[in-house]
Structures are given as structure tokens and as C-alpha cells.
Amino acid sequence: MKDAFGAPQSLLVLGGTSEIALATARRLIALRTRRVWLAGRPSPALDSAAAELRGRGAEVHTVDFDALDSASHEAALGKVFAEGDIDVVLMAFGVLGDQARDEEEPMAAVRVAQTNYTGAVSAGLVCAGALQAQGHGSLVVLSSVAGERARRADFIYGSSKAGLDAFAQGLGDALQGTGVQVMVVRPGFVRTRATAGLPEQPLATGPEEVAEAIVTGLRRRSETVWVPGSLRVVMAALRHVPRPLFRRLPV
């Protein structure tokens, strides 16, 4: 349960090496979060992330989690919830893919879709069920503005995020009245290891800005968070641009 100051005491991160997720975890630990689970594939990076958060005063555990192995999600995540209630689940795994390569190699495109959408549907439903059973908690889903409208430059990734976004919104509606909140986070271009070397887009942010928006959204019990906030207006306009014109826009 949240403490007397309203801060979550426990956090489960799906995608335990995500820069955005770890920036969020640091902020929550500073606000009294004391128990953190990092779920991801076993790796030195996952161990390093756990050690760094322990150094900030949290009790940190790791759990094996593979977004592509949906059959294992119930057992893997069930172990976490069996250890005690979780106040916040942050779903932060995903891959950008390589649009040019993925168009030539359909199975590579399928991997993007399975990671970003199918894996998220499986893990999201498992966590939602566990949160509902305990009667409280928040599920934070990292979506993307790329899912708002398909672009020629990244329509494979964008379509996977569009599916994830729609799923998360519907899940939030289904959980109304249960004590469980679903918050969809839609960042624009974020400067991370995954985007290193890519041309920077307008209104770019970093992991810390996204983390700050997530923590603020949790406090406000927001349903949708745009990062930066101005993207809400930008995307509202772009959704209505005629397709022939949209194709020519440098977006």
C-alpha cells in the first residue's frame, strides 16, 4: 500500500534495464519506495541496475522475464506478487526495430510486433489480474506518440505501439471501479541508448523528463500522460492532416 505521504512503497519494472524505467525508479525511491523488482532477461546490465538502486536504499530483487515468452509470464510474475502487494507496475520493455531491414525481413518485423504488443498484452493482463486481486495499484504503460498516426519512417514500430496504446486504454476502462489505475504514457523522441545515432526529432526529451512526468501522473492519477505536454496539441492537429499532405511532412 502507499505510505502516509501517498508515495508507492513497492514497484515492479517490466524491462528492468530501461533507462526511462530506472530514472523513474530512482525518483520513486527518493519518495519512499522501498521494495523494487526488476524483471528482465538475466544480464550484467540487469545486475548492475539492481546494485545501483540498492545503493540508493531500496530492497531490490530481480526476476527472469522474457517479453517474447508469453507462456512463462504468469509463473514468472506470479512469483513477484506472491511475495507481497505491488503498488506500481511499470511496463517499460520494447524494441524500436530497424524499419528498412524489417520491411525486407518479415520475421524481424514480427519480432517487433510480438515484443511491443503481444508480450505486453500477456504481461499486462497477468499484472492487471494480480493488481485487481489485491484491490489496489497502478499499471503504467509506456506507449509512444509513434502510435498516434502511422508514418512512412517507422510504421512497423508505430503500429505495434498503436496496438499497445489501444489495449492499455481498454484495459483501463475494464478496471474502472476495481481500485486499479492504468496510466498510458506517450513520449515523443527520447534520447536513450536505443535512439543513439538516429536523427533527433522536434520536442525531444530525455529519460529524466519522462520519469518526472510519470511520477507526476501517478500522483495526479492521470489516465494519459504526454511527454512533453505540448505533444498533445501537436498530435491532435496531425491526426486531421489529409494523408497526401501528411506524407510530405517532415515528421
Structure summary:
This protein is α/β, with parallel strands linked by helices and 251 residues long.
Show the helix and strand layout.
Layout: E1 10-14, H1 19-30, E2 35-40, H2 44-54, E3 59-64, H3 73-82, E4 88-91, H4 99-104, H5 106-134, E5 137-142, H6 155-174, E6 180-187, H7 207-220, E7 224-227, H8 231-238, H9 243-246
The CATH class assignment is Alpha Beta
Class from secondary-structure proportions: alpha/beta
Can you tell me the CATH superfamily? Answer: NAD(P)-binding Rossmann-like Domain
Order of helices and strands: EHEHEHEHHEHEHEHH
CATH topology: Rossmann fold
User: Can you give the mean pLDDT?
Assistant: 93
Helix % is: 40-55%
Oligomeric state of shown chains: single chain
Task: Give me the side-by-side strand order of the main sheet.
Answer: 3-2-1-4-5-6-7
The Cα radius of gyration reads 18 Å
- Mind telling me which CATH architecture this is? 3-Layer(aba) Sandwich
What is the number of helical segments per DSSP (H or I, 4+ residues)? 9
Span between N and C termini? 42 Å
Strand content: 15-25%
Number of strands: 7
Global morphology: globular
- Low-pLDDT segments: none
- Total separate domains: 1
Keywords: Oxidoreductase
Family: Belongs to the short-chain dehydrogenases/reductases (SDR) family.
EC number: 1.1.1.333
GO molecular function, one term: oxidoreductase activity
